[in-house]
Amino acid sequence: MSFRRALFSSTRGRRLLLRSVAAGGILSTTAFFLSTTDSFGWIHHQAEQDAPLNYPVPAPVALPPSREEQIKKLGTEKFDLLIIGGGATGAGCALDAASRGLKVALVERDDFACGTSSRSTKLVHGGVRYLEKAFWNLDYEQYKLVKEALAERATFLKIAPHLSFPLPIMVPVYKWWQVPYYWAGTKMYDLIAGKENMESSYFMSRGKTLENFPMLKPENLKGAIVYYDGSHNDSRMNTAIALTAAQKGAVILNHMEVTELSKDASGRVNGVVVRDNDGYAGKIQVEAKGVINATGPFADKIRQLDTPVAADIVAPSSGVHVVLPDYYCSPNMGLIDPATSDGRVVFFLPWQGHTLAGTTDSPTTVAKDPIPSEDEINWILNEIQHYVADDITVRREDVLAAWSGIRPLVRDPRAKNTESLVRNHLITLSDSGLLTVAGGKWTTYREMAEDTVNTSIKEFGLQPAGPCGTKNIKLVGAEGYRKLMFIHLIQTFGIETDIAKHLTDNYGDRAYDVVRLSSATGERWPTRGIKLSPAYPFIDGEVRYAVQHEYARTAVDVLSRRIRLAFLNSKAALESLPKVIDIMAKELKWDKARQEKEWDDTINFLYSMGLERGKYFSRADVESGKTKVWV
Q: Which residues form the FAD dependent oxidoreductase domain (predicted)?
């Protein structure tokens, strides 16, 4: 059936066409501009990254303040702000406040990005679904969410170009009436992004669509609409934010748990008591003019330390993701299905040389390391099967890793309808002065932090040196980053190409320091960099760098959040565990008992990442090759 006949042959087609034309009346005046010109702002950012490699090898960077130095400051100094929680929002608050000249401390009971901030979809996006809701429901608040998120997306990619990048995403079209519908929506998305738009959306022919996704089901495929968003390495981004805050003078401590809130004689919160979960310092009393609760899904636990009868504001939702081999996705383009069998969205995204697929959206309970259920994993695999060609079988054995992230949706405690969920973030102040920030999403972490610090300054009577400047603060690794830096690394140090590209894209200009900490191979080529797993570009120097420069204290810190091996392949992470523990034991002076504890703790963590549960893996089994990984 022709495109025209398909549109006019059904009531739905005619109705959608009329709506699309209405939107197109606005869009037609801008479509030509958007489709024939690049974003001026984006070109500027790209020019910085594409500059020629005409510089000497950078000198080694200085070590950050040691953990012992940070602990001493925590117990002896009084702070303007004490931030609880080392996820994206907490780290963002620490950077914002420290860059304004405030005296800041941040404590995290586990590790930076140990929760939701490392278990995201890895997208830096405005939210095309919110835009669709704004259009159909004439909802201005949804439109504002998209506009704000798109502005933050541009800032995100500017301050951390080594950790984030533009990603074209296709929406396959199987019915002709969908073409003007999706085209109008993506053009509006471009228009709202304005001068910071990455590239213009466009229609891709059927042939080009199958060329990019050869596994896609070809029957009735008309083509695809392609639009642009961003992707990033979430936990490394989180760590970079925290380390940049430390550069600005903040005291940042992971594995430091708040056990109680302290209050003055009038009942106002004036600090916290913390316990060093790494075993160095025991309990410490910390004084602060204001305390910020930025603990994501665990926000209610801290609120109830303040007020035991406080009603919950977090409505936790589970989002399960699976990692599949690279052949399930184009290496340079993602795919989103906006209408699955039950109305949820499913996606395939290229990430770290693999395919990331998901996600579910189900009510859940808050847990430290949530384990994805087999039902949720199988739902994702079944949805993928609907999209791939009939001669391709999506197998459970193809799942290399799987995890569940808890999205902390929030209810406004001041709202009359307590069932209604806040679409964006929520900042609330208790009667005793505990400031809580919750909700939001990764893309808008910086804006959330700015709003929270602004509120803190007002509520706690603080005196900042100036306004928020985080839109222009480049994160650790970004200052000297260049796209072609990997060539310089190869020529200077004699490392393999895949390792050089990996280090450049995950450490930026700090890649030189990582290589310096890597062992010699004893071979003519490559000369440096011993791989932790033969199938992946992660090397021994990354473990040493994580300990010396990034406050990694456990093997899980390294395998899951400094390098991402646990998120990419749980069996490969298991295979690498002996090397990681041996390197960390030398760096941190671990005794035998601590090494055995690290082994058991890491195995338990890997169960939550898809490692076969109900089976214990001993170090002897791993080192003897009984658990050999096939990738």
A: 80-446
